[in-house]
């Protein structure tokens, strides 16, 4: 599938401010599942210095530094991406993916430790993990499928462009959440069964509801021996294939926000307008 994506974020401040360093995680990754065909990123006011770099997670980021004062910041990105993974199950899990809790080979376990141990433990997440594991006869892939389906059917999807990510137990208790909330909940439940899990931001071809506008979307990836990092989208109850474009992945949602930065000055109020347009062919 080919994506033509436009992403525009406009930040307004109630008084002139000085912009601190900013990190933009809006560059699509390039791997076996997707290929970047073109990319442009315009920033106004123009940074005094900018560079593309790899962050600690291996994501391509744009670092920007500014001088002077401004009452607004606008970031306009356009990209063309071709997604190639039509079958999300195009792998054979190895023998280390036969029973729960997950047991990775020693070399993988050392590399993946931080993605397994960064838990947001709660009694609710533990109970759900244990119940779904028992129902799946401790089969890892059956567990992941059951969790994906359960969250799709039991958590009402909501749009929330601003604000942080809810705690997993809050999402479970309220029975509703944005994609970032449901992704964090999926990860928390998986980590209770010792899966390596990470948080991904990007775009989707089809929003969860027909009348829903496009925005930045979030989903989890789980490391499966034999398959590598594999995405699941509990907002749709589907395994991720060619209908998603990934921008960045990290250990949690706080480390994978699309735009990260600070400002200094007397402005007591700020606002953001976000426009995302996704066309597919």
Question: What is this structure's SSE topology?
Answer:
Layout lengths: L1 E23 L9 E11 L4 E6 L5 E6 L3 E15 L22 H12 L5 H13 L4 H15 L1 E2 L10 H7 L1 E2 L1 H13 L5 E8 L12 E8 L3 E6 L4 E2 L4 E7 L8 E7 L4 E11 L1
Parallel strand pairs: 6-7
Antiparallel strand pairs: 1-4, 1-5, 1-13, 1-14, 2-5, 3-4, 8-9, 8-12, 9-10, 10-11
Helix pairs in contact: 2-3, 2-5, 3-5, 4-5
Keywords:
281 residues, alpha+beta, seven-stranded antiparallel sheet
What structural category do the secondary elements indicate? alpha+beta
Largest sheet at a glance?
7 strands, antiparallel
Count of alpha and pi helical runs = 5
Outline type: globular
CATH class of the largest domain: Alpha Beta
Helix content, binned percent: 10-25%
CATH architecture of the largest domain: Roll
Radius of gyration: 19 Å
Model regions low in confidence, pLDDT < 50 over at least 5 residues: none
Q: What kind of assembly state do the chains in view correspond to? A: single chain
In percent, how much strand structure appears in the residues? 35-45%
The average pLDDT is: 94
Topology as a string of helices (H) and strands (E): EEEEEHHHEHEHEEEEEEE
End-to-end CA span: 6 Å
Integer tally of domains: 2
CATH domain fold name of the largest domain: C8orf32 fold
């Amino acid at each position: 599938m080919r994506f033509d994506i436009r992403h525009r974020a406009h930040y307004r401040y109630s008084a002139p401010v000085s912009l601190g360093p900013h990190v933009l995680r809006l560059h699509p990754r390039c791997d076996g599942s997707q290929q970047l065909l073109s990319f442009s990123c315009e920033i106004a006011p123009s940074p005094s210095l900018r560079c593309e770099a790899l962050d600690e997670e291996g994501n391509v980021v744009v670092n920007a530094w500014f001088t002077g004062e401004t009452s607004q910041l606008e970031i306009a990105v356009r990209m063309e991406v071709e997604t190639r993974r039509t079958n999300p199950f195009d792998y054979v899990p190895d023998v280390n993916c036969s029973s729960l809790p997950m047991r990775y080979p020693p070399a993988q376990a050392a590399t993946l430790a931080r993605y397994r141990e960064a838990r947001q433990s709660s009694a609710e997440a533990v109970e759900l993990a244990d119940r779904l594991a028992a129902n799946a006869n401790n089969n890892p892939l059956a567990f992941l499928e059951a969790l994906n389906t359960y969250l799709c059917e039991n958590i009402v999807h909501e749009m929330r462009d601003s604000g942080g990510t809810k705690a997993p137990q809050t999402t479970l208790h309220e029975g509703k959440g944005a994609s970032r909330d449901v992704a964090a909940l999926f990860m928390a439940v998986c980590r209770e069964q010792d899966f390596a899990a990470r948080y991904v931001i990007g775009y989707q071809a089809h929003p969860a509801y027909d009348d829903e506008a496009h925005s930045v979307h979030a989903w989890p990836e789980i490391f499966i021996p034999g398959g590598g990092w594999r995405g699941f989208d509990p907002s749709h109850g589907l395994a991720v294939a060619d209908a998603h474009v990934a921008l960045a992945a990290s250990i949690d949602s706080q480390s994978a926000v699309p735009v990260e930065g600070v400002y200094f000055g007397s402005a007591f109020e700020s606002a953001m307008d976000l426009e995302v347009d996704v066309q597919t062919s």
